[in-house]
Structures are given as structure tokens and as C-alpha cells.
Amino acid sequence: MSDALEKAEAAAREAAVDTAAVQIALAAVELAKAAQAQQQPVPHHQCEHQHKARRSAGEWLGIACAVCVGGVGIAFASLALAILGGTAAIVVLVLRGMWADYQKRR
Asked: Which of 24, 34, 57, 73 keeps 20 to 30 A from 90, CA to CA?
């Protein structure tokens, strides 16, 4: 009978240990769930794209200077084309006059 009693006591101790282990495991799972809920707050509204850095005043000043220099360059190019066109017109008129004089002398 003491053998049966000892077996019953051992089974009771094992059940108590198993119950405690299960309780600890469940507590750990609950703690992990609570930690995960704390770490991931629900964002209200966040953009997923990357924002570019804004330009500084120095960069805008450099861009403005480049545009001004480009504008002056275009103005000089237009002036050069106008002078070239006027010169070509004068050359054509002089050659036409010379051709007319040459035709009269023949």
C-alpha cells in the first residue's frame, strides 16, 4: 500500500509541477501579446513615400543666376542672328546690283 501511496504522491507532485509550467507558459504568452500590442501603435496617417529635402536659399540663388546668364546668352545669340541676316541681305542686294550693271554693259 505504501507503494501505491508513493506513486500517487509522485503523480500529484508531477501534476503540480506540470500545472505550474503550463501557467508560466501561458503567462509568458500573454506578456508577449501585451508587449507586441505596445510596440506597434496604430498610426493615424503616415506617408509611405520618401520626401525630398527642400532646396536652400543658396541653391535657389544659383538657379536664378544660371537662368539670367542663359537669358543673356539667348539675347546675344538672337542679336548675332539679326546682324547676320542684315549682312546677308546687304550682300545679296549688292550682288544683285552688280549683276544688273554687268547685264547692262553686255
From this structure: 73
Compute the residue count for the chain: 106
Domain coverage including residue 96: 57-106
Whole-number Å distance between alpha carbons of 12 and 8: 6
Chain Cα centroid distance, residue 75: 37
| Number of domains making up the chain | 2
pTM of the model: 0.43
* Predicted local distance difference test score (pLDDT) of residue 71: 96
Q: Confidence class of residue 26 from pLDDT cuts 50, 70 and 90?
A: low
Residues 67 and 97 in one domain: yes
